[in-house]
Specification:
Largest sheet of chain A: none
Strand content of chain B: under 5%
Distance between the termini of chain B: 30 Å
Order of helices and strands of chain A: HHHHHHH
Number of helices of chain A: 7
Oligomer: heterodimer
Distance between the termini of chain A: 65 Å
């Protein structure tokens, strides 16, 4: 595979990752969200492997494999089991209407391109143009967490945000040192365990996973 | 070697307590772990004081004047909190607020949390610092919801999500930092080590580092609890068990501020200016003012003191932002005395809320008659935290004020206003709680509750003596840390 082809494929994968981020914003069904999230993981993993191949960096293969196992199989599976066990309603209603969210999302992407412009000029890596997509993914994940009020969707937004961070590490620097990547992966797994516990706790004390009911803690009662 | 031992004690204690945490002697094991950690931290301190800063394990861990004093402080407060936690958690167990599994979980997570904080302090790697900050968050999330009440679960969820998102921004900042450092130091872990980074900070790309600092500020600023990123803090600190409130307020905020300050020193080196400092000053001042006014309308005693923590972190962040040797010295001292005073206050608050079986301040009256030592502890703690002489907080705030008048005179009226409002609010709320008429039921329940006074007494004595006299080794460390941060 030639270097140019690798860049082309990588750009295509970046575009697909951005597409899945928007997909997460507009998808209303919980299982649909899980599918899109898993696909995002697939694109991320393939992109990491391609960068690792064309830059000749073996540690990126490990990162790619970790992404594949954790983000594509483990996390969606855990979430699937939780959703199934807790019998969460399949329809996800959203707080801000979809066209508005999409427009905000587009603004976020433009903002990301603007913010990362100086870095694009400084970098010599083949992946430099995808850093903006990585930041967009982070911010779109944040947007998803703000606009959705279900515990499950907030978690998926959070994990998409983590995907963005991971993508940023690959596109800005060909990945962080391995010890950092391993530690981050460990943290994500612990976080997965914790939100699993949380779903049960929230379910038993609020009788739903709708966070609208969780607005009791204010300064003035 | 001492350093590895220091880290492994808490980790081993965590594993041990995960199995025996519900036994009757678990609290003693917890104290033992804390005491051993503290003893080893003293050894480490002595080693650094005698032979200077050093790096071990291929540059993976390092100790210098800045992190060693925080490590000793962390070990000390975690030991005294473990002592306080023994009668406190025993009572909670007796009245059935926590079960067997919860006790095991509590003890194990407590030690894991200490481990995460020590790792954050002693690691040389910016990425590992991030990982351990996240670990510190994750280990305390489920402790906040230990009581399983709806409001505690809400608080824990907020803590989990807001800190998770916040700290994710800091990881983005770390990526940007690595991007800039890789060009100078080459690929690999070496490019993320504080010792290497501070050596070459002048050659790092200034635009990238300025951008990185924004992300560090949002990320670690959320953990420090700076306004407007503070929403999670009062809930998380108020709803969990009080020993956890004490270590969250007293220790974790310090660690997050430590991370932020290290990043600021790098960015200052790269930009040859004080741009990062101005940002920190703004966040600090806003935190001070907003939290001082929020103190006025608090009803829950633990929430009130959480806001007071935001206030003091604001003061410290402001002082670090101001820069200069006096302000930085004051800020380092402030982190130390705030940590000791605030955890002592939480110890007394914990006992008070057990005596009255409530956290509502209007229902806590006449504490000094119900239980003398607890009442006096709370009163003196509040006197100390509001910056009354001769306590140590007065010294540090006075230093910061003089630096403010000299370097940023325009800020000094706001600084004084914040301090004055906080003083008025805390005294107005505390006086009736401590004095005033105690009901019969409070006096009865005060007899049945076992109280450990020694942690409060020790903390307050140290804070008092730090206000009167600063030991030579501390001032040496502070001076060295000031040089590091410039």
């Amino acid at each position: 595979m030639s270097h140019e082809l690798a860049i082309e494929i990588n750009s295509l994968l970046a575009a697909l990752i951005l597409l899945t981020s928007f997909g997460l914003l507009v998808q209303r069904r919980v299982y649909g969200l899980l599918h899109i999230f898993a696909w995002q993981g697939v694109f991320l993993s393939v992109s990491t492997a391609i960068v690792g191949y064309s830059a000749g960096l073996n540690h990126l293969y490990i990162s790619a494999a970790m992404t594949l196992v954790i983000k594509v199989f483990a996390l969606p599976y855990i979430l699937y089991v939780l959703i199934h066990k807790l019998r969460i309603k399949k329809e996800v209603e959203d707080m801000v209407n979809i066209p508005t969210t999409m427009l905000i999302g587009i603004a976020v992407v433009i903002f990301s391109y603007h913010l990362t412009a100086p870095i694009r000029e400084l970098s010599t890596l083949m992946t430099r143009s995808t850093l903006a997509v990585a930041l967009s993914t982070v911010l779109l994940g944040l947007l998803m967490m703000i606009t959705r009020k279900k515990a499950v969707t907030q978690i998926i937004g959070f994990l998409a945000l983590e995907n963005g961070l991971f993508f940023a590490a690959t596109s800005a620097t060909y990945g962080m040192p391995l010890v950092v990547e391993l530690g981050v992966a460990l943290d994500i797994l612990i976080a997965a365990f914790i939100f699993g516990m949380f779903f049960f706790q929230i379910r038993t004390s609020f009788d739903s996973l709708d966070l609208k009911e969780m607005e009791k803690l204010k300064d003035l009662d | 070697m001492t350093l590895i031992a220091l880290l492994s004690i808490s980790l081993v204690s965590a594993v041990v307590l995960a199995f025996i945490g519900d036994k009757r002697y678990a609290a003693e094991v917890n104290i033992l772990g804390g005491a051993a950690t503290f003893a080893v931290s003293l050894l480490l301190g002595a080693e650094v004081y005698i032979s200077g800063p050093f790096v071990i394990a291929n540059g993976f861990f390092f100790v210098d004047a800045l992190n060693v004093y925080l490590a000793v402080l962390t070990a000390f407060v975690s030991m005294t909190t473990a002592i306080f936690s023994r009668p406190y958690m025993r009572h909670e167990r007796e009245i059935g607020r926590v079960g067997k599994t919860a006790m095991r979980f509590y003890h194990a997570m407590y030690q894991l949390f200490i481990f995460a904080m020590l790792l954050a302090l002693l690691t040389n790697n910016v990425g590992v610092l991030w990982i351990s900050m996240e670990l510190a968050t994750l280990s305390t999330v489920l402790l906040v919801s230990l009581y399983r009440t709806p409001s505690s679960i809400e608080a824990a969820w907020k803590y989990f999500i807001l800190c998770g998102v916040g700290i994710a921004q800091a990881l983005f900042g770390t990526v940007l930092l690595y991007f800039a450092a890789e060009k100078v130091l080459g690929e690999g872990s070496a490019a993320l080590q504080w010792t290497n980074l501070s050596r070459v900070s002048g050659q790092l790309e200034p635009t990238v580092l300025s951008l990185a600092f924004i992300f560090f500020m949002i990320g670690y600023g959320t953990k420090v609890g700076l306004v407007p990123l503070h929403n999670w803090l009062p809930d998380a600190h108020a709803e969990g068990p009080t020993p956890i409130s004490a270590v969250l307020s007293g220790l974790l905020l310090n660690i997050a501020l430590y991370a932020l300050v290290r990043c600021k020193a790098l960015v200052d080196g790269a930009t040859h200016g004080n741009k990062a400092g101005y940002i920190m000053m703004a966040f600090g001042m806003v935190s001070l003012l907003v939290s001082a006014f929020s103190l006025l309308r608090q009803k829950d005693i633990k929430r009130m003191f959480s806001y007071s923590s935001i206030e003091h972190m604001g003061i410290a962040a402001f002082a670090f932002g101001l820069g200069g040797s006096v302000a930085t010295f004051g800020a380092l001292l402030h982190m130390l005395v705030h940590s000791l005073t605030k955890s002592a206050i939480f110890f007394t608050v914990g006992h008070a809320s057990q005596i009255y079986a409530t956290q509502q301040m209007t229902r806590i009256r006449g504490l000094i008659r119900a239980n003398g030592p607890v009442g006096w502890g709370l009163m003196l703690g509040v006197a100390a935290i509001t910056g009354m002489p001769p306590f140590g907080v007065f010294t540090s705030e006075f230093l910061i004020l003089t630096a403010t008048i000299k370097d940023a005179p325009i800020m000094s009226p706001f600084f004084l206003l914040g301090l004055a409002v906080a003083f008025a609010a805390l005294f107005k709320k505390t006086m009736p709680m401590v004095f005033g008429e105690a009901g019969e039921s409070a006096r009865l329940s005060a007899h049945s509750i076992k109280v450990s006074d020694s942690p409060v007494v020790i903390h307050m004595l140290i804070v008092l003596s730090l206000g009167l006299y600063l030991p030579v080794f501390l001032s040496d460390w502070f001076h060295a840390a000031v040089r590091l941060l410039r």
